Amino acid sequence: MRKIALVNQKGGCGKTTTAINLARCLAGMGKAVLLIDLDPQGHVALGFGVNSDHIQTSSYEALLGQVPLTRAIRTLRERLDAVLSDVLLAAFELVMAGAHEREFKLTRALDEVPARYDYIIIDSPPSLGLLTFNALLASEEAIIPVEPSFFSLQGLQRLLETIQVVETKANHPLSVKILATNFDRRTNFCREMFSVLQARFPEHFLATVIRNCTALREAARQGKPIGEYDQKCSAFADYQDLAREVLSSESTWSGGGAVELHRLDLAKLAGEIGTTPAFGLETALGSRQPAEREVIFSLEASPQAVVQLAGNFNNWVPESLHFTDSHGKQVWHKTVSLKPGSYEYKYVVDGRWLLDPHNSRAIHDPYGGLNSVLNV
Q: Contact at 8 Å (CB) between 361 and 376?
């Protein structure tokens, strides 16, 4: 059972939207999911079309220990259950003032949850208070949605400080991932900000990018996850990709550790945005052996796109390609030194995992998809 907290004290970054749609997509892929709302605004209920007046038992009563958490669980969709919240949860910090081990109320409550769930997704409030501490301490993993703004950088700095406190003071390690949200590839600032963040956190930056999409707001107004509102929009494809990335990382996320604070220098990052070439980042390949061969990977794509390459030769960690406009062709390329053997790979374009259109050889992966195959 994987426990993943969605955290960011800054509002408007797509945290609740991600919690709703990630949970729904995971359930749609056959996983049993429990979604827990720790936000007093109760937007998870709204996102699934549930009237707050119809919530008889909420996360508030469960956290206080007035009822077992299992009493607050309700079924929303096939394989998707939830513990919903309402405005009563706003009183939690006041009621818990001075209480013993108040940061572990959710952890204790989850002890009663049956093992039938594959995933527990926890949506936290837009604050760094007691409820967020409960979410972090009850989880082994955290996803931090970050939108393209300098305020997001400040929020990320404070959140990483909070995670460091959780790790050191409570001896509770967390595997942290950063998710780019509200991405608009038409703006240089957006592309450059995420490029800089990706360079600072190469091991923690998710390959999936959630693009800015009007359909997400329309779906929320209708009280539906995006997959039940419009499966043709970019947002549905993005959240499907996010769910697949989460599934594919089941053996690699745990124990990854929190992001090191010294990597984030706000003043330096702010200065780099606007001066750093967008998405020209490279990962060191290490020393080359005589038996290795240089292989050029190339893909035609818009210069505004975010183009990366991932394969079993780099542990499926997406690496950025370089852009060249040659003889009217807009090509992204990367040279990789490989030893003789067979390799699987995919391109990642704006967060979407794609087969090589110029390579007809493909093989099934363990998750029902396909990977391109290259023999060196």
A: no
For CA atoms 42, 45, 51, 55, the dihedral sign is negative
Beta bridge partners of 326: 329
Among the listed residues 255, 275, 84, 258, the one whose alpha carbon sits nearest the alpha carbon of residue 193? 275
Indicate the average pLDDT of the chain: 83
Looking at residue 251, its pLDDT comes to 55
Domain 293-375 has CATH 3.40.50.10840: no
How is the chain split into domains, by residue range?
2-270, 293-375
User: For 2-270, which CATH superfamily applies?
Assistant: P-loop containing nucleotide triphosphate hydrolases (3.40.50.300)
- For residues 149 and 125, give the distance between their C-alpha atoms in angstroms, rounded to a whole number: 19
pLDDT digits (tens, 9 = 90+) for 156-185: 777 888 888 888 888 888 889 999 998 887
Q: Of 156, 111, 119, nearest to 36 (Cα)?
A: 119
Q: So what's the pLDDT on residue 321? A: 87
DSSP bridge partners of 74: 82
pLDDT in tens, 202-246: 778 888 999 988 999 999 999 999 999 999 999 999 999 999 999
In this prediction, residue 151 has a pLDDT band, given cuts at 50, 70 and 90, of: confident
pTM of the model: 0.70
Q: Which residues contact 88 (CB under 8 A, 6 or more apart)?
A: 40, 58, 60
Res 354: pLDDT? 93
